[in-house]
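Q: My labmate handed me this sequence with no annotations at all. I'd like to see what the chain might look like in three dimensions before we decide whether it's worth expressing. Could you predict it?
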Amino acid sequence: MKFQNPEPRSFFLTENLLAYMYEHSSKPDDIQQSLIAETQKLGGISRMQVGHDQAMFLYLLVSSNRPALAVEIGTFTGYSSLSIARGLPDNGKLLCCDVSDNWTSIARDHWGHAEVDSLIELVIAPALETLSGLSRETEIDFAFIDADKGNYINYYEALLPRMSKHGLIVVDNVLWSGRVLDSDHTDDDTIAIRNFNQHIAGDNRVTSVMLSIGDGLTVIQLNK
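A: Here is what I predict for the chain of 224 residues:
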């Protein structure tokens, strides 16, 4: 199956430059391409799927971090969770939090084909409820947030006390197609992203970096 470059999420890159970047990066395999194709059938909502560049970045982070427990908040059709699960060590587990049986059924199917389904626990419930139900002793080594923007700060604050000393939190959509800089955009999601970004920038408990990958990723670690 020949890989076709998806619609760019990096709004600040030209199509030619983005194509060059994909050409000089590892390509999606057949399972990933199938997942991209199945998600595209959903129509416009398919833009919720992370880009392959973001997925590869997650895979590399997880492969290096080697988390015993990873958490994903917002699974959608499973492209990011597939990448995270593939990067896990043999004893690693991924807890996926989502509220949609329909979208995650596509994820389950492709997890099975990729033979990573035994590493993943999917809980269909509000993520804050799922996180609050974890035991106090549970330590999280890696977390990815890509869900409803209005709860970004709540998700972050629920995760932070549970993060291990070497743990990483990665947050998607922090550039929000550039709308974070446009004062004409005052919708709830844009305001929520601005508030989240400011919250992280002012949090002296952590060290963070905002990266221009996809629609913007912020990587966060507890100060040691």
